[in-house]
Design brief:
Mean pLDDT: 78
Structural class: mainly beta
Number of helices: 0
Number of strands: 53
Strand content: over 45%
């Protein structure tokens, strides 16, 4: 769950006070008023205590806030009182129609509200008041109000904080109480608390930074900025009427700090803010002296290889907390020098000499923040004597270079290293022929370095490797059908010492079930191979459907230009395809989609398509367009011819797919039958072949002239080439003919009127729209 947005409004506790300018003068008290119409509403109570013993029959209110945008928004007066606003809405005059407030009596429910945009919240508003009798001033005074965004609700969440001591660090334990008993508030989707944050608002007498953060049971600590810690829960929310305690935050401090304040925030499962408040002036007394320095520890991984943990822990009134952007290691023992390739965290550079390593963040934001943030991705190795102790000095620097922060010395002992190499293990993945490859950076004899790339290969002709999803954001690609390369996205983002990463791939074997020896190689940041090893992989793929080659579009029915799509239904890449035609038809021209090439044979009966990248398993490729020519023999029941596609994969496996081409009707059979051309009506002995009306709403008339006597057949076909009607099929003499045709029983759509004579076939399109 993402941390919720923290509004940039400090939320002081409501404060209201009033004072008169005279002893025993009138008294006005004010408290927040629950209101659905205006958030910033307040109820004023007026007590007549003036020494003149006069009735209060008029009260004036004037806003004198330094915020010019705050004005009175509304007012409600008790019985027998009326009010008027001044012209600028910063003053209200309230008068009584029955004598007013007699001495020693009290009247409430003078309810006013004000408005001023976002500036009205959390900022004190000062209001002057004057009580009067018959136009003469009696008493004057001032009160302040502070409006919160949530004061219109009667019951708000609460947070209690218990301070404790822990050495030099004061610690605070938080308990959250959900008091949203009236149901969901308008500004959020739920009144159940799923997210909590604690923000250090201000302190008294020094500098504070978080040093330890512990979530409540069932809750998770998300992250922390300089002043704010964020928490969320997945299964232990705080329901209305419930409470959860146990959040603990300890602060790195100095002895001058005596008090501090926290703002807490509560949000629902949609990260919408429910409630917030401020707990002020908490005692932060601690015992002991603070450690005002960064910390660095060194852990021996194996042999002379070490990992460094660096923590930004500096807190000082003289040196404000800042990010660490530079770490320097120095050899302080003669004969001990650093090896050639230390490791650095992402977005840090490293500069190496024989006796020093300087790590530097690329930008300020890449530096190590103050407080709880630390890193253990600094690694180094040394060479030299292996039986005695040696010292490594270190220094940290802040962003305003060259400003020194902290320094120290760590003592280590370099033992004789047991040679260790990188390791690769391959295990079966989630599906058949899917594998997970886990790589671990374990080398310690060669100069320590990140693994920047991993390659995996199998013998040529043994099958195909294909990279799939990875658990880390590395790039992956097929170098060839039998080799995969996994590459870190940028330098210094490789696999650091003593860390592992998992990559996924599929293996499509040439011989199912037979073991194949796979070879792996790890490569450092300079592109130099580190270690190589082998492991066996084998699998038996699940039998799948053969590839399919499908007619998907008639680009132009009259000219027989068709478009096909190829779908790979096998686990291996399809790299070639041969398409051929039957029944004497020819392929006049062919188009290859992007990434494919094509070659027509000399007889125009087949075309070969080739792809270097290949069509991957489960993928489809459209755009195989071809133009056909030919004729249909008179003996065919349905005018169609077959298109046969034979695909070949990387393992030399083949599949055959067959589809039919229909509605390719505008062709004739010439006398020598050696070629075919587009038909005209004159070519088959027919003239003035027309259809009227076209489009038709249900009936049409087919007209034509017979120039050459002979057998004439007129039929109607649908888009799939199915014959739906025969209009005539007989010998006809020379002359003009009209054939009516009623189509009321047919659905709307496109049809073809097919006329065939002894000399050939010609078609006309007929559109039916009722």
């Amino acid at each position: 769950m993402n941390k919720f947005v923290v509004f940039c409004l400090a939320l002081p506790i409501f404060l209201a006070a009033a004072s008169g300018v005279r002893a025993q003068g009138d008294i006005l008290t004010v408290r927040p008023q629950s209101s659905t119409d205006n958030i910033c509403a307040f109820n004023v109570t007026v007590s007549n205590h003036n020494t003149a013993q006069k009735n209060i029959d008029e009260i004036k209110f004037d806003i004198v806030s330094t915020n010019p945008d705050v004005t009175f928004y509304d007012f409600a007066s008790p019985t027998h009182w009326t009010y008027t606003f001044d012209g600028n809405s910063v003053g209200i005059d309230v008068t009584s129609d029955n004598g007013g407030i007699a001495p020693n009596l009290t009247v409430s429910n003078f309810i006013f509200s004000y408005s001023g945009g976002n500036d009205q919240f959390d900022n004190p508003v000062t209001i002057n008041w004057t009580t009067r009798n018959s136009g003469t001033d009696i008493s004057t005074g001032t009160f302040q109000t502070t409006c919160t965004q949530f004061q219109q609700y009667d019951k708000l969440d609460t947070c209690t904080i218990i301070p404790s001591t822990s050495g030099a660090d004061p610690c605070f334990t938080f308990t959250m109480v959900n008091r949203n008993l009236q149901g969901t508030f308008p500004q959020q989707s739920s009144s159940t608390i799923w997210n909590v944050a604690f923000q250090l608002l201000n302190i008294n007498g020094g500098t504070l930074r978080p040093s330890k953060i512990i979530p409540a049971q069932g809750w998770v600590f998300d992250s922390a900025t300089t002043y704010t810690a964020y928490f969320h829960t997945d299964n232990s929310p705080i329901d209305p009427g419930s409470a959860v305690g146990g959040w603990k935050i300890c602060l790195r401090s100095n002895p001058n700090v005596t008090k501090c304040s926290f703002v807490w925030f509560a949000a629902d499962d949609a990260n919408a803010l429910i409630d917030r408040d401020t707990v002020r002036n908490i005692n932060s007394t601690a015992t002991g002296s603070p450690i005002d320095a960064d910390s660095l520890s060194v852990k021996a991984v194996s042999g002379c290889l070490y990992n460094v943990t660096l923590k930004n822990y500096h807190v000082s009134n003289l040196l404000p907390p800042s990010r660490i952007v530079k770490l320097t290691l120095r050899s302080k023992t003669a004969g001990i020098t650093f090896s050639a390739a230390p490791s650095a965290p992402p977005n840090w550079t490293k500069t190496l000499t024989a006796d020093s390593i300087v790590y530097a963040a690329k930008t300020l934001s890449d530096g190590i923040p103050s407080g709880i943030v630390s890193t253990n991705q600094f690694s180094f190795s040394v060479v030299g004597p292996t039986t005695s102790n040696f010292d490594i000095g270190w220094e940290t620097d802040r962003s305003t270079a060259p400003v020194f922060l902290s320094s120290g010395t760590v003592t280590q002992k370099c033992t004789i290293a047991t040679p260790a190499t990188d390791t690769v293990t391959i295990a079966a993945g989630a599906t058949e022929c899917n594998f997970d490859m886990t790589v671990k950076n374990a080398h310690n004899i060669k100069p320590q370095s990140n693994i920047d790339a991993v390659t995996l290969s199998i013998p040529a002709g043994s099958g195909q490797l294909t990279p799939t999803s990875n658990t880390i954001a590395w790039n992956s690609s097929n170098v060839s059908a039998t080799e995969i390369k996994f590459q870190a996205p940028t330098t210094n983002e490789g696999l650091v010492s003593d860390n592992s990463a998992t990559f996924s791939f599929t293996f499509s074997p040439k011989t199912p079930g037979a073991p194949v020896t796979a070879t792996w190689t790890t490569v450092d940041e300079a592109g130099v191979p580190l270690y190589t090893g082998t492991t066996n992989i084998s699998c038996t793929p699940i039998v799948t459907q053969c590839d399919t080659f499908m007619l998907v579009a008639n680009i132009n029915s009259d000219s027989c230009v068709k478009s096909f799509t190829l779908q790979n239904r096998k686990p291996v890449d399809v790299v070639s395809m041969v398409v051929s035609v039957t029944n004497g038809w020819k392929i006049d021209s062919a188009h290859a989609p992007a990434g494919w090439t094509r070659q027509l044979d000399g007889t125009h009966t087949s075309v070969t398509y080739l792809s270097t990248d290949g069509l991957h398993a489960g993928d489809s490729q459209a755009g195989f367009d071809m133009q056909f020519s030919g004729y249909f023999p008179d003996t065919l029941l349905v005018d169609k011819f077959a298109v046969v596609a034979v695909t070949t994969d990387r393992n030399n496996g083949t599949c055959t797919s067959v589809d039919s081409v229909l509605s390719c009707l505008a062709h004739i059979k010439p006398p020598d039958t050696t070629s075919s051309v587009a038909a005209r009506s004159e070519d088959i002995g027919i003239g003035n072949f027309t259809i009227q009306p076209n489009p038709t709403r249900g009936s049409a008339e087919i007209s034509f002239e017979v120039h050459t006597p002979g057998h004439v057949s007129v039929s109607v076909l649908d888009l799939l080439g199915h014959q739906v009607a025969t209009l005539t099929n007989k010998l006809m003499s020379q002359g003009t003919y009209q054939i009516p045709y009623v189509m009321n029983t047919l659905p709307d759509g496109v049809y073809y009127v097919r006329m065939q004579t002894s000399y050939g076939v010609i078609t006309r399109k007929l559109v039916l729209t009722k």
